[in-house]
Design a protein that fits this description.
single chain, 418 residues, alpha+beta, 6-stranded mixed beta barrel, 17 helices, 10 strands, 19% strand
């Protein structure tokens, strides 16, 4: 929409009305502020939701893989080497790792905690970036087969009150049978490394040890593993990629991908994200109504000026362009201010959360409830562009009625008594 020089001049004057029309300026300012807050809220909420999903996905998939191959009914895999070779030969599979995973109990000085024991080969332990890249104390190089050293999560270490070099005891209820019943198997280990993945449930429960030590603790055959973790080139295409492998395994083993294992969690996140987007769009809709009301008041205040312009030869289309320009300018300025505010708050999100927690004395971000230890963020350019487009569209639609009212002003009726 191109404006002539006088239309630009008048639109500029109407954006900053005179002294007697400060109320209109105040309403327009509220409209701009509402647009700014609506855009900022949408950017922040959508970015945090995306960050939450991305962080959870990276941590969960990084620790559990894109899919796992398990025996039916939780039975161990005895022919796992053949299955491992078949998985690695599947097109699209980038890695396949044998492992043992078993819920057990760990004690230290009278404290007891439920744990999830994970046994991996030593190269796989050191090659797992989710674990090796988040070691906060000790060294994974100390965790070797036969050394009786293990790596544990940071929250578990805090709960049990242990540090590097501390002795802990792991209980296996499936111990040896005696005439008096089954005696649990208890084995002492030394904490060789402490890791912090960033997911509370994992940091509070996971214990990693070499495969050979896990087989000894669980009284498993050296040629037996619990499952095979599989990673593919594209997590979103894990189903089609593993379809040939799933078909070839038949009834010998089952393949479960990350969507099946975490379906409820990620579906809940997706529904919540859509709901928050719709709810926050109402804020922008209210801001658009504010822009419409401020323009209607501006039209009423400038009725005499509009009549004079029409008498001087200004066409109806010029009036429409002028008031559309005024309204959309408010929307554009509010959108830009909202984007700036949103990105600034996202950049300082964790210090802001820490400050509010310190000020209120409340734990606003409890990792035991929110899974992650810090507030995540991941802006999505497509979603941000959608927010901007929706804001500008609603702003433009809000200007149509006031602009049409201005264009329909009858100069004869207005100037009759002047």
């Amino acid at each position: 929409m191109l404006l002539s020089s006088y239309e630009r001049l008048i639109a500029g004057r109407y954006l900053l009305p005179g002294k007697g029309e400060r109320f209109i300026v105040l309403v327009a300012g509220f409209s701009l502020g509402a647009v700014m807050l609506g855009v900022a809220a949408l950017v922040i909420v959508m970015s945090v939701m995306n960050g939450f999903r991305a962080e959870l996905f990276d941590k969960i998939v990084g620790l559990n893989g894109h899919a796992v191959i398990q025996g039916y009914g939780g039975r161990p895999l005895n022919d796992w080497r053949q299955l491992l070779a078949r998985a690695k030969a599947t097109p699209g599979v980038t890695s396949a790792v044998p492992m043992i995973e078993q819920p057990l109990m760990m004690t230290n000085n009278g404290r007891a905690e439920a744990i999830i024991l994970r046994g991996l080969t030593v190269p796989d332990i050191r090659g797992n970036s989710t674990i090796a890249g988040h070691v906060v104390a000790g060294d994974l190089n100390n965790v070797t087969a036969g050394s009786n050293r293990i790596a544990i999560g940071s929250r578990l270490a805090e709960t049990l009150g242990v540090d590097i070099g501390s002795q802990v005891t792991i209980w296996n209820p499936a111990g040896q049978s005696t005439p008096f019943g089954t005696v649990p198997r208890m084995v002492s280990y030394t904490v060789g490394a402490i890791f912090e993945i960033g997911v509370y449930d994992y940091d509070k429960a996971y214990v990693v040890m070499p495969m050979e030590d896990a087989q000894t603790l669980l009284l498993l055959d050296p040629d037996t593993v619990g499952m095979i973790e599989v990673n593919t080139r594209d997590a979103d295409q894990v189903g089609p990629i593993l379809a040939p492998l799933r078909a070839s395994l038949g009834q010998t083993a089952a393949v479960s991908d990350w969507r099946q294992m975490n379906a409820q969690l990620f579906e809940a996140l997706a529904i919540e994200q859509v709901s928050m987007f719709v709810i926050l769009c109402i804020i922008i809709l209210v801001a658009a109504f504010n822009i419409a009301s401020s323009l209607i008041m501006l039209v009423r205040a400038k009725t005499r000026d509009i009549a004079i312009l029409r008498t001087m030869g200004a066409p109806r289309a010029a009036m429409v362009r002028i008031f559309i320009t005024v309204g959309t300018t408010i929307g554009v300025l509010g959108t830009i201010a909202g984007l700036i505010l949103g990105f600034v708050l996202l950049y300082f999100r964790q210090p802001i959360v820490d400050f509010v927690q310190k000020l209120s004395g409340q734990n606003l971000w409890d990792p035991s409830i929110r899974f992650l230890t810090e507030l995540p963020s991941k802006p999505n350019p497509v979603e941000i562009a959608m927010v901007v487009a929706i804001t500008l569209l609603l702003t433009f639609l809000a200007t149509l009625y006031p602009a049409s009212r201005a264009a329909s002003t009858d100069p004869v009726q207005v100037l009759r008594y002047e």
